[in-house]
Design brief:
There is one protein chain. By secondary structure, this protein is mainly alpha-helical. It has one domain. The protein is globular, with a radius of gyration of 13 Å. About 30% of the residues are buried. The mean pLDDT is about 85.
Length: about 110
């Protein structure tokens, strides 16, 4: 299946506008476990992705992180007790860290 970094890179490199529809459909059900604790970061990435004026390079990174989060086929399956969402949290945190300056305007 590959490492989480490999999977995240693939999801980022293959990011497309169609992925935004996938994110829209599934993001509501993801606010659980450790992800609920960082939901403000998830929300920042989501606002960035939805902004038509956001630069595509950053948007692709955010889409990759959100697709990784909603995908049941990531490095550690989300249904695995305790650690299942930790890799998703790590990916979201890394994306927010890389995009921190671009995300400032989306904070409420």
């Amino acid at each position: 299946m590959g490492t989480k970094e490999d999977m995240f890179e693939k999801m980022t490199n293959n990011a497309s506008e169609a992925d935004i529809k996938k994110i829209d459909a599934k993001i509501g059900g993801m606010k659980r476990g450790k992800l609920a604790e960082i939901w403000d970061k998830v929300t920042l990435l989501y606002k960035f992705v939805k902004d038509p004026s956001a630069p595509w390079t950053g948007k692709a990174l955010a889409i990759g992180a959100l697709i990784y989060m909603i995908s049941p086929l990531d490095a550690v399956p989300d249904l695995t007790p305790i650690v299942g969402l930790l890799d998703d949290v790590a990916i979201i945190a890394a994306a927010v860290g890389k995009l921190s300056s671009e995300l400032r305007k989306y904070k409420n």
